[in-house]
């Protein structure tokens, strides 16, 4: 393409990558989705690099796919034919960390766990912790409004975002939000960008709220159940009792079996589900209450940690879940979320869909939020999920919506879920969203065809 | 106006009010701002009434000023010449209250405290509690993204809003958000409407998150300080120590004196400020820690409640603040918010502005959020604040921005703060906001001239 030399000239040396082996490595996320062939990758190091790239893209009408670490599960960062993949992974500065105001200003390439560790040096933490938090970046977390394990207590990424520095499609820089905890000047542009999956602008810095890290170590419980439904009932009982877990994770037998086959955790034959819950030091009574509620709902065995090492051991089981499932085959990782009281029903629906379509579905759930990740396993040799997997997934999506839920709790729509969007949002929503997209990106160069 | 009979015909009997004495009573909020003369008031009772009114307004290009209880402090509901004032105060249904999912679906005319009371019957609470919560409505709270005393722990109105039913300017109905705690399908339209001050659509129902009400009564402390700055330092120390107050309110001597003159609370001569803090039953250690930090920062006397009656007595002092000040004269109630570490500096700036311009300023602050309400007192005989009050207010606004703060923490921009907007938000923000307004309200009939 003729325009490429102009981009190379406009950026500092080394920013534009065109070697096909290199660009290919930036083209996919964690989905099976087959990417297009990008024109090039821009590895931005500064906000000015982003401005330059977007000005050029606007001038030459080139689509731009912003990208963090590529850990997405919905195809939001999947390359399009002829696009510039704009990688923010090298913008890794924590520009500021203010313990007094409990805020940090981080660039999009900062690895989520690195920000958390930096905060902990001051007795603070960065709360959002998607399962990928050791490899995913703040920019990707913002793009998808990532959740995680702790969000049952501390909220999702949007709840920790106070302000943003954004480069718009035409290269203008927009500062949204503020450094204060509260503020109502103007429309909530900050919230609008969070979760917009790179379709409205490219975030080059975020003012993030830090939280006080718990002073005392948490108490962790792990409870084994004879049925998935019983575990779901225990979750509903825990929520109804007003416990405030800082983590409440559910794993079905398929998941546990995959972990056991890999790491031999001594899984008994009659265990159909496990619940892992954590109560922080400010709620010590909640751990024993949650253990009791598990027993009352049929748990056969309940382990309670008494040391940080035991806690790590119990949580470690949950952390193995995704990798263990990847050993079984290719994975379609789904992300429905239902009102919390509907969790047991949703679990039953997933089991029914699996049986009806003869699909292996292993489910983990951020149960305290009603957010389930049914993982549909299919033959690794296949380029994409076969018909019966899509049929089962379709039933799961529809069941979630019928139960008052949503297609995606924390992964985003990306490319993967666009074909179901119409089931959840009506024509007025679509029209309004297209109007907003038009305000920010009238030429439709930012991540076209994604999210909305 | 010729169009009015068509509106009267289209709505059920009794909805359109045209008696000038009646329409005048719907024309003002709590500010001194002189309203325009409305064409009529529509007292909507159903969503269909709102749809009918907005369709008619679009057809005839009539401006519409949505209105809740009229307790606003920024002129957001002030009538404009020739407008329809669309009152939502009669839409008072709590359509649903689900203890299992901890949500309520409320219409805009529900009084905030009524929703809270309905939730408490199920061991839950509706957290946002602006000082006006016994008279203000959910719709007004949503329009301004209202805060309150408890938001230091539980967040502002937006943090409790999961979804909305909105009637757009042309009468189309838009449903935003969801019933689930998490969800990332599409752009965050819910957050966009919250705080938009009636300029983007008219909210006819909200799905609101309820929280578990604390099981134990709170412990309340009241500390008296020899200087305002010392009290500000105590707040900074409390925040830095990681205490989690559920309420942290600061009052200056002017405020205390006004309360004492009215209710005789036995104010000593050397008390320049009082801090009222509350720790809930889940953080019992925080109350004693906060008392100790007050003493270390110079508090002369610290009262600690041990019964609910004593708590009510201490909190009662704070509740008297606004009414006590109204006894002194007309009030310009301001609402700056600064990063929490800047609270002592902001207090000093307010004192300097008061002295320099010879204005009586009485300040209360939601100190845990850095949100200050300096109240500028002026002669009740004047139709609006005199020059020296504006000059002092101007300095206070500029100081807040210089300290990294914002013009308004929870009241909104309305008409009152529009002339300072340019100091906080730049031309790109303005252009983007106008673009969003255009998407939702291309004819500019919804609360024109307000908020942005």
From TrEMBL, chains A, B:
Gene3D superfamilies attached to this UniProt entry: 3.30.465.10, 3.30.70.2740, Vanillyl-alcohol Oxidase, Chain A, domain 4
Any one GO MF annotation of this record: FAD binding
Family, as annotated: Belongs to the FAD-binding oxidoreductase/transferase type 4 family.
Protein's recorded name: Glycolate oxidase
Keyword Flavoprotein among UniProt keywords: yes
Cofactors, names only: FAD
EC identifiers of the protein: 1.1.3.15
Keyword Oxidoreductase: yes
Keyword list, A-Z: FAD, Flavoprotein, Oxidoreductase
FAD-binding PCMH-type domain location: 34-213
């Amino acid at each position: 393409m003729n325009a490429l030399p102009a981009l190379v000239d406009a950026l500092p040396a080394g920013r534009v990558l065109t070697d096909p082996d290199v660009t290919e490595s930036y083209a996919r996320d964690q989905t099976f989705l087959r990417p297009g062939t990008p024109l090039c990758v821009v590895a931005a190091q500064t906000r000015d690099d982003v401005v330059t790239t977007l000005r050029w893209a606007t001038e030459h009408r080139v689509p731009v796919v912003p990208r963090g670490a590529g850990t997405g599960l919905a195809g939001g960062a999947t390359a399009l034919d002829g696009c510039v993949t704009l990688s923010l992974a090298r913008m890794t500065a924590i520009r500021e960390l203010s313990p007094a105001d409990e805020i940090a200003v981080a660039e999009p390439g900062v690895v989520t766990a690195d920000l958390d560790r930096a905060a902990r040096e001051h007795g603070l933490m960065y709360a959002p912790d998607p399962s990928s938090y050791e490899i995913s970046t703040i920019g990707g977390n913002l793009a998808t409004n990532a959740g995680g394990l702790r969000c049952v207590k501390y909220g999702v990424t949007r709840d920790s975002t106070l302000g943003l520095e954004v480069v718009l499609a035409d290269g203008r820089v927009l500062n949204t939000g503020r450094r204060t905890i509260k503020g109502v000047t103007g429309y909530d542009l900050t919230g609008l960008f969070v979760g917009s999956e790179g379709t409205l602008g490219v975030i080059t810095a975020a003012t993030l709220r830090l939280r006080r890290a718990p002073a005392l170590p948490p108490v962790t419980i792990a409870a084994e159940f004879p049925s998935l439904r019983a575990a779901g009932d225990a979750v509903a009982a825990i929520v109804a009792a007003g416990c405030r877990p800082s983590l409440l994770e559910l794993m079905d037998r398929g998941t546990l079996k995959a972990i056991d086959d890999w790491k031999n955790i001594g899984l008994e034959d009659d265990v159909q589900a496990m619940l892992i819950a954590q109560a922080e030091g400010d709620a010590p009574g909640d751990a024993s209450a949650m253990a009791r509620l598990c027993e009352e709902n049929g748990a056969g065995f309940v382990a309670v940690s008494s040391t940080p090492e035991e806690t790590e051991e119990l949580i470690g089981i949950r952390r193995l879940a995704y990798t263990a499932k990847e050993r079984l085959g290719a994975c379609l990782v789904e992300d429905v979320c239902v009102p919390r009281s509907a969790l047991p029903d949703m679990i039953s629906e997933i089991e029914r869909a699996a049986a009806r379509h003869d699909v292996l579905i292993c489910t983990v759930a951020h149960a305290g939020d009603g957010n389930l990740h049914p993982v549909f396993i299919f033959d690794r040799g296949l380029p994409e999920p076969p018909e019966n997997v899509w049929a089962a997934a379709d039933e799961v999506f529809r069941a979630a919506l019928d139960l008052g839920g949503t297609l995606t709790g924390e992964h985003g729509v990306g490319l993967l879920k666009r074909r179901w969007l119409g089931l959840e949002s009506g024509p007025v929503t679509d029209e309004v969203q297209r109007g907003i997209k038009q305000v920010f990106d009238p030429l439709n160069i930012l991540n076209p065809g994604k999210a909305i």
